Amino acid sequence: MSILITGGAGYIGSHTAIKLLEAGYDIVIIDDFSNSHPIVLDRIREITGKDFTFYEFNLCNAQKIEQVFAKESIEAVIHFAGFKAVGESVKQPITYYQNNLIAVLNVLHAMHQFHVNRIIFSSSATVYGYDNPVPFTEEMPISATNPYGYSKVFTEIMLADIAKASPDFCAVSLRYFNPVGAHASGKIGESPVGTPNNLMPYISQVAAGKLDHLAIFGNDYDTIDGTGVRDYIHVVDLARGHLNALNYTLQHTGNIAINLGTGQGYSVLEMVHAFEKANHVTIPYTIQPRRAGDIATGYADPTKAKQLLHWEATHTLEEMCASAWHWQKNNPNGYSENHTN
Length: 341
Ligand code: UD1
Fold this sequence. Notes:
The structure is a single chain. The chain has helices at 11-22, 39-48, 62-71, 86-91, 93-113, 147-165, 199-207, 235-251, 268-279, 303-309, 317-330; strands at residues 2-6, 26-31, 53-56, 74-79, 118-124, 170-176, 178-180, 214-217, 229-230, 232-234, 254-260, 266-267, 285-288. By secondary structure, the chain is α/β, with parallel strands linked by helices. It has a domain at 2-180 and 232-263 and 299-314: NAD(P)-binding Rossmann-like Domain (Rossmann fold, 3-Layer(aba) Sandwich). The strands form four sheets. Strands 3-2-1-4-5-6-11 form a seven-stranded parallel sheet, with helices on both faces. Helix 1 (11-22) packs across helix 8 (235-251), helix 3 (62-71) runs parallel beside helix 5 and helix 5 packs parallel to helix 6. It is globular and about 55 Å long. Bound molecules: uridine-diphosphate-N-acetylglucosamine. Uridine-diphosphate-N-acetylglucosamine is lined by residues 84, 86, 124, 126, 149, 178, 197-199, 202, 214-217, 228, 230, 268, 291, 293-294.
């Protein structure tokens, strides 16, 4: 029996693939390399010393998914594949809804046809929207302000409906907070195409001299120093959360959403200073107006993950910063020489 990992060549998917292989699972990866690179697969093999089956196609192709389910013996699915840039989703809503929702529907349909009942879905803290107080707990109402966020909300709702209709079904939506850092080997990490949108890869590229300075989006929030506060979580901790969630789905039925965060918020300035201290570099920055759509503060209540998945984050902020820099230094152009930054 194998675990199907969609988007397994991506940032979080590749770290999770390693955890599963190390834990002795057989895995099958589907990826279309729309935001990753074939070399990731070699690096997963190199790090683990293990092999796996790989298919290259886009999940909007229902027929190809069915062929995979017909050929492989799939026990559970971890569904990472999806577009994830908020700003781009606002400009290209059809592309986002098509890619993120048709894909998951195709996967769910194939699961139904082939009697595969267990799925772990990559959700996001973005579903807590604007109005919830921190820390965010899973019982809070969910909402979105852009097509990317709605694709997460809609998928969570679909999973809840399927679980209601199918007593043997088990879905875990993992609501990620802010994944950062990289594998200790320095061989896999986050490889944004073009200028990064997210804070940590942006800081790394400033440290590397690829970008001139960091633009901090607002210093007039009601936070410790006026800059936005987030719950940054080491991607290796996040990957381990999927392993625990997989074990949970093998023993339970129903539908559940679980936060994967540390429960600790850090401001943008705290992140800048932590990165400087951990890596002995200087990050020049300027203060710019707030970025549209940003909240002041977001961090998790991680209690449920501890109780149900027996999981909690163990990596420190210093480790997050050091591993992000280790990856950046070893791979100045990410995975591809063609990446232009
Ligand atoms: C963003 C998305 C979120 C998505 C997540 C995926 C938005 C509004 N939110 O979360 O939906 O699930 O990425 O990883 O895009 N910052 C700067 N300068 C920068 C970049 C970021 O000051 O160049 C600040 C932001 O204002 C924020 C913090 O750093 O306060 C974190 O930003 P980011 O890494 O983009 O994550 P989120 O906005 O939390």
